[in-house]
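Recall the central idea of this unit: under ordinary conditions, the amino acid sequence of a chain determines the structure it adopts. In this exercise we apply that idea directly, starting from the sequence alone.
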Amino acid sequence: MPDISTLLLLAAVFLCISYCSASVGLGGGSCYTALLAVSGVAPLAIPLISLSLNLIVTSAGSYQFIRHRHASWKIITPFLVTSMPMAYLGGSLHLPKGVFYGILFASLTIVVIRIFFYQKTSLSWNLKGWQKLALSLIAGALLGFIAGVVGIGGGIYLVPFILIVGLGTEKQAAASGAIFIWLNSITGLIARLHHHSVSLLDYYPLMIAVAVGGMLGAALGATSLKPRTMQKILGTTIIIALCLLIQKLV
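Accordingly, the structure predicted from this sequence is:
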């Protein structure tokens, strides 16, 4: 566990991350994971802490996006049907550190490339109803498993996926991301608590920080933030995580 000064510094940074992440329907798990890793937290504890923080942030996000009627259950339900059981399965595993950081880095790189190098928010896929359903079910299973293994909620993959495929608007994607992370974080957290023993009370400053940041960011993202600004915040947050993760890969 980091010393108290490091923990308080992390809390201040996590407040900013949760604010930015909540505004785009995310929990910030990718950044939490990277920061915890470079701060000396044990690899076994990182996924459990990140999932807990994700759960706190997206509780506010889910409420705000549902309250402002941005949530589309037609979009999110197929993903949840397959992602939740796979998130539990992934959460019960413990990958070697090299594989853990490799999966996280590769996934974040793909998302950053899409945001900053492709202006279109969707692709012209002329998919029929059953094709969209099948794609959502398959993607849900894959994203849920990766989310459970890496220890993040999975929305960081889902939000751009919805935009790229053209399943919904930016607001709907953000709302879907928040709900997806919330439910899969619960599932992954249950699996982690069942298979691994870590005291979360030692990290209460981080939980308080992300609760405050999450509430403020969710209110902003659900009401006044422009879609393109949301994407830039998402991309910037991910770049920060990538810079930190490079240290673990070299």
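Residues 66 and 175 are 7 Å apart (CA to CA).
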